[in-house]
Amino acid sequence: MSRRGAIRHFPDPLSMNRRAAGYVAEVLSSAVTQQGYASLVLSGGSTPLRLYELLTGQPYAATIPWARVCFFWGDERFVPADHQDSNYRLAWGALLSRVPAVGENIYPVPVGLGWHESARAYEAVLKKFFRERAGSSEGPQARFDLVLLGLGKDGHTASVFPCSPDCCGQGWVSAVQSPEGVQPRRRITMTTARLSKSERVLFLATGEKKDIVDRVFGSGEAAGDYPAGNIRAQKQISVFLSDQGM
Ligand code: 6PG
Known about the structure:
three-stranded antiparallel sheet
């Protein structure tokens, strides 16, 4: 189980996102070759937007077997799917509406239900997916091929915030509140345990996150104090940091 992410530095966001796009294409194509499908967990927030847009263009778009890729969200704001704060809306506009992804392979968080009901329903969707695709929802096969994650300046990732310890439980999906002042407050998030049931994890961060990246993924022993520091991966955790801001 891989723990400490090796930080890769890039001079600017574009070079970081180009390398990230190549990495995503490599991992997805390899997974489809090996198992007939790939499972990709998308990140919310603004950092991955440029990556999503790059993936719709060449050379990446032509190398990814989009119809075999299954898309999930590591977290979602509990708002309607067409709300400006929706992570689904962001990924749909920047990526999914612009590539030949297959509708039944896109698994958004069901925000049309009650808040906690939505978390329970998403957990059931994930378990059904792995039972059908990997033969079991509990075994070592029930791992995502790649999880994309952002990083907050407080060390949160997805919607696992330092103030929401219940996200470190063993369940797969939680309904949580973000800290005061971090809107929208009501969130649905995969837990660190579920996010860590992955072959590979890629964190993306731009210049203004340099300090927290160093604290979580650098030499400091305080990594475990931050939710992002508790993420694991079966094969590899990568951290791409552009020295310039967005
Ligand atoms: C969300 C994300 C969250 C995000 C970080 C970084 O739903 O907001 O999952 O974890 O990745 O807050 O956000 P930025 O990329 O906008 O800085």
